[in-house]
Amino acid sequence: MPPRRRRDPVEVDAAARQVLAGDSTRPVLALAVRGLAERLAEWAPGHHVELRVPPYTAVQCVAGPRHTRGTPPNVVEADPVAFVQLCAGRLGWPDAVADGRVRTWGDRADLSPWLPLLP
């Protein structure tokens, strides 16, 4: 299987800014979400938490014990726009979890130490 093409960080940041400005068209949102999820996986490498942002991506991140079969013990599932807002620091982790835009399973399913991702 060929290695994944890494998305251009400048393009990802531009797409994220477009989403924050209200452009939630599928190509723009997909680029922002996939690029930011890749960045999170680079900044918090590991396989202990699975981040899911349906329908765009799922990545594993955060160091810790690795699961080998079935559903991972720690899962974060986020609404796409909320994920971009979290990455930009426009939405706080506690608020996103409280209002259901981010759902978590597991005792280590907290990505707040690595957020925000955007400068």
User: Strand tally, please?
Assistant: 4
Structural class: alpha+beta
Q: Give the biggest beta sheet.
A: 4 strands, mixed
Shape: globular
The mean pLDDT is 91
- Termini separation comes to 33 Å
Count of structural domains: 1
The helix content, as a percent range, equals 25-40%
- Count of helical regions: 4
What fraction of residues sit in β-strands? 15-25%
Strand arrangement in the largest pleated sheet: 2-1-3-4
CATH names the topology as Nonspecific Lipid-transfer Protein, Chain A
Task: Using the 3D structure, state the CATH architecture.
Answer: 2-Layer Sandwich
What pattern of helices and strands is seen along the backbone? Answer: HHEEEHHE
Low-confidence stretches: none
Q: Quick one: CATH class?
A: Alpha Beta
Query: How would you describe the oligomerization state of the chains in this entry?
Result: single chain
Compute the gyration radius: what is it? Answer: 14 Å
Q: What is the gist of this entry?
A:
The protein has helices spanning 9-20, 26-43, 80-88, 93-98; strands spanning 49-53, 57-61, 75-78, 102-105. It has 119 residues and is of the alpha+beta class.
Question: If you had to describe this structure to a student in words, what would you say it looks like?
Answer:
The chain is an alpha+beta fold and 119 residues long. It has a single domain (9-108), classed as Nonspecific Lipid-transfer Protein, Chain A. The chain is 38% helix and 15% strand. It is built from four helices and four strands. It has helices at residues 9-20, 26-43, 80-88, 93-98, and strands at 49-53, 57-61, 75-78, 102-105. A four-stranded mixed sheet has the order 2-1-3-4. A hairpin with a 3-residue loop joins strand 1 and strand 2 (57-61). Helix 1 (9-20) crosses helix 2 and helix 2 packs across helix 3. The N and C termini lie far apart (33 Å). The mean pLDDT is 91.
